[in-house]
Amino acid sequence: MDFRAFLKKYDHNERQLVTKVAIGQPCRPGDACNGIMEYEALWDTGATHSSINPSAARECGLIPCGMGIVARPGKPGGEHTPFSMASLALRLPANDGVVFPNVFLVELECPEHDVLIGMDIISLGDFCLSNVGGEMWFSFRLPSIQRIDLTISPKPIAPCTCSHEETPYGDCCNNLARTTYLT
Q: pLDDT value at position 147?
């Protein structure tokens, strides 16, 4: 199965996941999209919908195509907010990235970033974050091609202390690895 993915590496523990995105007018898969502009996008697993600042939507030539009710802090019951259809390409410098030819972006003011990637997009693929040796790696692929279970370890993370020298990766060792990786 063919898939598209990207990997972003940080040399430190990062508090915000930010990637470059290219936004353009809606287009068909494989066609060139018009009005493509590049922005920094914040990935937000707490957001149900992806959004774009109204000024960025105008800069790309996006035309609002509907209204929706968006729940926001301090706005009980939500508020009517325009949304636009756009083409969204998640790109990094050395990668063609993952392309969504037609997505809905809610027009909302975001103080620090012009684009916010929400769970409507994140939930379409595999989203993975790891921190090893002081480096943080963030990766996303589409479509989802396998389950990722972080409770399974291929080998003990801590030295084996059981008496099963002939089978050092037996159940007792796997259980040890599952419970000692945070020490």
A: 87
Class of domain 4-142: mainly beta
Residue ranges of the chain whose pLDDT lies below 70: 1-2, 28-35, 69-80, 82-98, 153-183
Residue 49: predicted pLDDT: 84
Domain extent listing, the chain: 4-142, 149-183
Q: Answer for the pair 63, 84: CB distance below 8 angstroms, yes or no.
A: yes
pLDDT tens, 109-131? 878 899 999 998 899 889 999 99
The rounded distance, in Å, linking the Cα atoms of 111 and 40 is 12
DSSP string, 39-103: EEEEE-TT-SS-EE-HHHHHHTT--EEEEEEEEETTEEEEEEEEEEEEEEEEEETTEEEEEEEEE
Q: How many CB atoms lie within 10 A of CB 63?
A: 13
CA–CA dist 52, 25 (Å, integer): 13
Helices and strands per DSSP (H, E), number in the chain: 3, 10
Give the pair of three-digit tokens for residue 1: 């199965």
Question: Following CA atoms 22, 114, 13, 134 in sequence, which dihedral angle do they give, to the nearest 10 degrees?
Answer: 20
